[in-house]
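Review form for a predicted model. The reviewer records the input and the model, then writes brief findings.
Reviewer: anonymous (R2)
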Amino acid sequence: MSTATTTETALSDSFGSKFRKTVIGAGFAMVLIVPKVLNLRRNEHSWAVFRTVLGVFGAALVILPIGFYSSYFLAVIGLGIFTAAILLPPAKVTSGTDDRARELGALVVVNGGLLQSGIAPVCSVQLFVGAENIWALNDDLVPQVVISVPEIRSARAEEVHNGWILRVRWADHSAIFAYSGMFADHLARVAESTVLSVMRPSLPVLPQRRAASA
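Model under review:
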């Protein structure tokens, strides 16, 4: 009886040790593979091939153990892989925002909140911030306001009764970008710092020296 108990305990310990090593190895492999998989997702064709291969591999792990031996451990893993291949999201293609930013030469894109300006209709916009211009584009990526960076006189985030606003003044124009909700403060300040980062500092006015008396 003692020998049988010892044998069962040894087998249990051996299985537990192998299982832990397998889990640790799988976790380490995932750390190495995940960045490559995310990079694959940017290519639609490569992502489709990856999902197909993953599905076939998972299906093979389900079928082969059942046909050749009685262990169903790999079958369970294979079923998980096959299910993951089906549920994986589609390829992450380049967004229209990225293409539009490259087309305009924008350095960064930030949330512009709700545009309120006398020269454009009220609508939600994104700010495409470039070195020479700042474009406020609506949801269809159509410019509503174009702000010339050299003409910007001020850009200031302010708290109002129903949220936060970013007030931008340039030349003879001004625009208000209104933010609401839990992150209104953060969004307004991010937009403010982004606009300020491309503004040219005004040159100091040097006092005129009086001509030396003769």
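Findings: Residues 96-198 form a domain with the PH-domain like fold (CATH 2.30.29.30).
Further findings: The chain has two domains: 2-87, 96-198.
Recommendation: see findings above.
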